[in-house]
């Protein structure tokens, strides 16, 4: 049988088949030690093959195969330095919620997020939330940012989780896909998800799970089916992506506008800082690349290691 992993709590996995049947599954013993350097070889979102096993009238599943993933996001284990914890797999898209104020979302944060999501091969859609609260100047800021990010290929939507503005557009984009919601604390993730599916009170759920675990702060991701043929992965207590280690030379590849120009630079290992005949610097001088984006790029590759490597799971 084949199914999707909806929930993983240590050694048991909740798996749902295409037909909608739900089975509690474990991993096959040998499979567990098959050299996967992760604290959890199977993650929420994984597609797995399993066989049923009846034990004292109780039917459960034994997982013997994981299908190849289109992508996955990880978190570094705190105490097992070389191991990573896979948070979720096979994510179609992440909605990054942005607010101009209350709380402010800086472009450096947006750009770092986009670089990480690109490195993970996860598509990002930018949602500018709380537009119901903005005055004309703030709305102009939203328009300016939306223009900047649309120009480099990102879909941008102004929304309000409170008034319901453009919530239907978000739902349309979610149809038939597995989505995640991300962004700083207080940008309105829970409020928006509740506006999308009022019966799904994720926040309450996250709190009750935490309560069950007492002082222990470990959180488990979980996938939910929504009523309109969409799925979301909720990661309680986790607001962003973990950090991807990358070489300086690689960073530009995750800025679409820099990647598009790099073959026009004189040097094929151009870092677009001081090199002569640099297509990126030329584009910047001609206002074809946003200065804020270039500044974020420099921050990531130059010195700002501290900031860049800070685990943004814990700092939002
Ligand atoms: N005016 C207005 N307020 C909003 C909107 N969306 C969320 N809020 C408010 O912003 C506050 C934070 O919203 P949450 O949904 O809790 O934010 P969150 O991103 O889930 O926050 P964390 O759980 O800390 O990550 C709440 O008081 C919401 O009522 C919106 O579109 N307009
Ligand atoms: Zn260059």
Automatic annotation (TrEMBL):
<dbReference type="InterPro" id="IPR012340">
    <property type="entry name" value="NA-bd_OB-fold"/>
</dbReference>
<feature type="binding site">
    <location>
        <begin position="183"/>
        <end position="191"/>
    </location>
    <ligand>
        <name>GTP</name>
    </ligand>
</feature>
<keyword id="KW-0378">Hydrolase</keyword>
<feature type="binding site">
    <location>
        <position position="265"/>
    </location>
    <ligand>
        <name>Zn(2+)</name>
    </ligand>
</feature>
<feature type="binding site">
    <location>
        <position position="272"/>
    </location>
    <ligand>
        <name>Zn(2+)</name>
    </ligand>
</feature>
<feature type="domain" description="EngC GTPase">
    <location>
        <begin position="89"/>
        <end position="239"/>
    </location>
</feature>
<keyword id="KW-0690">Ribosome biogenesis</keyword>
<keyword id="KW-0694">RNA-binding</keyword>
<dbReference type="GO" id="GO:0005737">
    <property type="term" value="C:cytoplasm"/>
</dbReference>
<keyword id="KW-0547">Nucleotide-binding</keyword>
<feature type="binding site">
    <location>
        <position position="278"/>
    </location>
    <ligand>
        <name>Zn(2+)</name>
    </ligand>
</feature>
<dbReference type="GO" id="GO:0003924">
    <property type="term" value="F:GTPase activity"/>
</dbReference>
<protein>
    <recommendedName>
        <fullName>Small ribosomal subunit biogenesis GTPase RsgA</fullName>
        <ecNumber>3.6.1.-</ecNumber>
    </recommendedName>
</protein>
<dbReference type="GO" id="GO:0046872">
    <property type="term" value="F:metal ion binding"/>
</dbReference>
<keyword id="KW-0963">Cytoplasm</keyword>
<feature type="binding site">
    <location>
        <begin position="129"/>
        <end position="132"/>
    </location>
    <ligand>
        <name>GTP</name>
    </ligand>
</feature>
<dbReference type="GO" id="GO:0019843">
    <property type="term" value="F:rRNA binding"/>
</dbReference>
<keyword id="KW-0479">Metal-binding</keyword>
<dbReference type="Pfam" id="PF03193">
    <property type="entry name" value="RsgA_GTPase"/>
</dbReference>
<keyword id="KW-0862">Zinc</keyword>
<comment type="function">
    <text>One of several proteins that assist in the late maturation steps of the functional core of the 30S ribosomal subunit. Helps release RbfA from mature subunits. May play a role in the assembly of ribosomal proteins into the subunit. Circularly permuted GTPase that catalyzes slow GTP hydrolysis, GTPase activity is stimulated by the 30S ribosomal subunit.</text>
</comment>
<comment type="subunit">
    <text>Monomer. Associates with 30S ribosomal subunit, binds 16S rRNA.</text>
</comment>
<dbReference type="InterPro" id="IPR004881">
    <property type="entry name" value="Ribosome_biogen_GTPase_RsgA"/>
</dbReference>
<feature type="domain" description="CP-type G">
    <location>
        <begin position="80"/>
        <end position="241"/>
    </location>
</feature>
<keyword id="KW-0342">GTP-binding</keyword>
<dbReference type="GO" id="GO:0042274">
    <property type="term" value="P:ribosomal small subunit biogenesis"/>
</dbReference>
<dbReference type="GO" id="GO:0005525">
    <property type="term" value="F:GTP binding"/>
</dbReference>
<dbReference type="InterPro" id="IPR030378">
    <property type="entry name" value="G_CP_dom"/>
</dbReference>
<comment type="similarity">
    <text>Belongs to the TRAFAC class YlqF/YawG GTPase family. RsgA subfamily.</text>
</comment>
<keyword id="KW-0699">rRNA-binding</keyword>
<feature type="binding site">
    <location>
        <position position="270"/>
    </location>
    <ligand>
        <name>Zn(2+)</name>
    </ligand>
</feature>
<dbReference type="InterPro" id="IPR031944">
    <property type="entry name" value="RsgA_N"/>
</dbReference>
<dbReference type="Pfam" id="PF16745">
    <property type="entry name" value="RsgA_N"/>
</dbReference>
<dbReference type="InterPro" id="IPR010914">
    <property type="entry name" value="RsgA_GTPase_dom"/>
</dbReference>
<dbReference type="InterPro" id="IPR027417">
    <property type="entry name" value="P-loop_NTPase"/>
</dbReference>
